[in-house]
Design a protein that fits this description.
The chain is α/β, with parallel strands linked by helices and 208 residues long. The protein is built from 5 helices and 9 strands, in the order H-E-E-H-E-H-E-H-E-E-H-E-E-E. It is globular.
Amino acid sequence: MPDIRDFILKNLSLESAPGLPEIVLYRAHAGSRLSRLGDTPPYWAYHWAGGTVLARYVLDHPEIVRGKSLIDLGSGSGVVGIAAMKAGAKVVTAIDIDPYATAATLLNAQANGVNLTAFTGGLTSSPQADLVLAGDVFYDPVLAEKMSGFFSECVAAGIEVLVGDMGRKPLPIERLEPLAQYEVPDFGQAQMLKAKVFSFKGKWSQTP
């Protein structure tokens, strides 16, 4: 397997993030040779609607993150955490299960002139943070159930949770309160679609 950092620098292009002209990211293109990285899908190399709207919302409403410690969960490219740092967050910890995502997050943060912490792994209990930001984590039913349980623990511990998603089927809509909607592209496509930012609620609601 090639050196992670070296591969990203040599094979991806540093470009403005779709819908986020304030941020640049190392992004995939036709000659990126991502197949060399093995069987793990390189989700971190593409823009996703949920992460994009969450980053846009944070940049548009900096008071949400200003002076706070937060987690960017399922960070991918790190775009949400980078947006939070640009908006005045005190500390950002970006977490992803893919080591390439961790490397990309650190490189992207450096390219944007912000400092954050990034590590590869997962969380099994509510973190020491004021806020959890999670874009596009409800794409799989099993993962969605785990995320719902984890977010419930966070809310019970007094940690606010904001979710960005384009409305995928596993989304637990009965647990979510919509805060904003934007039209953005999803997963490397140019076509615009509607995606929302939600606040995750600690209790079940009968009205989505």
